[in-house]
Amino acid sequence: MVDYGVGSGPRSVFVCDLDNDGDRDVVTANGDSDDISVLLNYGDATFATAVSYPAGDSPHSIYGGDIDGDGDKDLVVANYNSDSVSILINHGDATFEGVIDYGVGSGPRAVCLTDVDGDLVYDIVTANSLSDDVSVLINESDEPVYGCELRGDFNRSGQFDILDIDDFIDYLFRDGLPPACEEEADVNDSGQIDILDIDYMIDYLFRDGPEPIPCP
């Protein structure tokens, strides 16, 4: 086991490629130091020293996705004590602009990005533990910020691997998060998302099966 230091009181962790080098980097939401930590992957499962960026009061959850349509993974953070989400825009090299805050319900403990209204733009959803509700923030960007990129890349990390299978199983059988793009989850291009897509993914990764059908 190797430990890497982050901020104080980490509450949540998310993994995605932040600097567009094909490797999965690590970010944490640190509830006691009111910041996030970014650890860049050197490509050999070792990580650079954490770089911190401020968030709101007591960040409890963090999620990554391309919010502004430039192809880079931005970050959104749910802040428990300030009843807000913080958006950090990625410059493309895993450095981030100043925080933009939006109000949500009381005591947000979880946040995710997904396309709520079908316009191919990531919207923000939070689960609010103190007000017993969810908040939905609609992204008002005029241009679609994503389309189907790679069938089987369920978590939109930029690569197709066993973590996508795990996320797929979570979605189908454990009430996990839905795919951001349905075409990416319909690996065998059957027109529906089901267990046969998981079998197709396993065949490809471990049994020399056919590659996923290209996205339209």
Map the helices and strands:
Elements: E1 10-16, E2 25-30, E3 35-39, E4 51-54, E5 59-65, E6 74-79, E7 84-88, E8 100-103, E9 108-114, E10 123-128, E11 133-137, H1 162-173, H2 182-185, H3 195-206
Antiparallel strand pairs: 1-2, 2-3, 3-4, 5-6, 6-7, 7-8, 9-10, 10-11
Structure description:
- It is a single chain.
- With 216 residues, the protein is α+β, with helices and mostly antiparallel strands.
- Helices cover 13% and strands 29% of the residues.
- The chain is built from 3 helices and 11 strands.
- The strands form 3 sheets. The chain has a 4-stranded antiparallel sheet, with no helix packed on it.
- A hairpin with an 8-residue loop joins strand 1 (10-16) and strand 2 (25-30).
- Helix 1 (162-173) packs antiparallel against helix 3.
- The longest helix has 12 residues, at 162-173.
- It starts with 9 loop residues before the first strand and ends in a 10-residue tail after the last helix.
- The mean pLDDT is 87.
